[in-house]
# Entry
Amino acid sequence: MADTIVDGNTRWKCMLCGKCCREIGRGLEGSRLELDRKSGRCAKLNIKNMCSEYQRRPVICQMYPFHPSREALALGEVDFSIGKLLIDPACPGFGQGGKVLDNKLLMEELKKVALLLEHRIDLINQGKVVDAFF
Ligand code: SF4
Ligand code: SF4
# Structure
């Protein structure tokens, strides 16, 4: 299913299923996640099903399942507002819990990630990194 625009009625809650670390990374366009060759899981996922580098996890992991469109990003636009932000409907938390719009904590977190992405775009323009998400 194609990425879906987050609107005022979109609901999401993390179900702590770990699917994003086990499978979804494989499907991410241009993913640079280091995957375990045998299982296909992210190599940073430890035996307790937790990220072993949580504090240093890539930007894409910090915002998943939310993200701006690649087209907007290519233009240097990082707009995480409702109506612009996208969500991956393959995340089992899509459609669960309360409305994204009403989740102040989540909206604050997304604002921080948007700032981080803007910084990453600056670094790309300076030739210091090649991808804003990793
Ligand atoms: S796939 Fe979605 S619901 Fe599951 S852990 Fe990741 S973000 Fe949470
Ligand atoms: S880096 Fe960490 S958060 Fe990101 S996919 Fe791997 S285990 Fe999950």
